[in-house]
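User: Continuing from earlier, I have the next pair ready.

Assistant: Great, send them over.

User: Here they are, in order.

Assistant: Folding the first of the pair now:
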Amino acid sequence: MSAGRSRARMACAAPSAVAAANTPDTAAAARVLRQFRLVFNAVKTHFQQVEKQAGIGGAQVWALSVLRDAPGIGVTELAQRMDIHQSTASNLVRSLARAGLVRIERNAPDRRMVQLHLQPSALPVLDKAPGPLAGVLPEALARLDPGLLARLEADLAALLAVLQTEADDARIPLAVMSQNHSVNANDSY
């Protein structure tokens, strides 16, 4: 057989070889899917335990714990500490204030600025909530080796690119997403 014919056969075989190389390993994909299910179920179970024991949702418990640790902060700083949208933090604060767990003070000359404080009724709620108060996933991620966390971040970025997700959704807590809570960007104080 001539070298030209050999190259032609290899060229014809190349697309199928490339396709085979790009075909996902279905067994590996199934194992990873099961791992995601385990993560989501661990998070969901924790949120259910929080709600059952504390009587409020996981994101609300997290917000209360932040306010307990930083009395007098505003909504913007609460949002930064929880790494969520300011409108989501505003909605959390509003619901906590309605429940009598948070006091909103407007002491500054600029009446739009608020300071947030726990009401005494919030402390027993926090005492009843199972830890970690920020949630099991943030706690687990914080305990990972920095190199492993960097690899996980890069690998998840590749998955998110395939999923074509909305970047804004990254700032909505899982506890809020699991409750089908809508976020209204126009909500403010």
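And the other member of the pair:
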Amino acid sequence: MPTSVLHTARLELVPMTIAMVEAVMLGRREDAEGLVQARMPARWPNRELVERAFTASLEAIRADPAVRIWGDRVLVVRPKDADARVVGSVVFHGDPGAAGVAEIAYGVEEASQGQGYATEAVDACLRWALAHDHVRAVQAATFAWHRPSIRVIEKVGMGLVGSRDHETLGELVVYERRRS
């Protein structure tokens, strides 16, 4: 199943490409905006975004983009009366491979938070991932205190399945939705 643009009621979920990843990771804002044909938020791309969204090095992503940026998308709002703008991203931590479990992460820029964009985008990407034959489940991990993130996860039908320790961040709670 090829990666294509996903559409929701308010969003266009544009697949990330190698050119987009390079522009973001190398801080080339104008190139990134040109590739997605939308204005990037004032603070994006920045080092924090790069470190959270891209857990692999640029070299590793270039070497195996089908695995490294599998399903990753940029959230774009294209209003009829204003310029298109990027409001966030949804990323998977690579192709789920033989285990069949994909891990999803997401972020919405500060000025666009609290408007339902994360829920809308995560739901669409979750359904997209679970439509693949090799995907048995999609998981999301967050801090137990991060209520906005947990609300998104619960709204898209993911249930708590446990917790795990992250080597630098501490304990994360893990939610999952399985293919029915």
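Worth noting for the second one:
Helices lie at 18-25, 29-36, 47-53, 58-63, 65-68, 117-130, 147-155. The chain has a mean pLDDT of 91.
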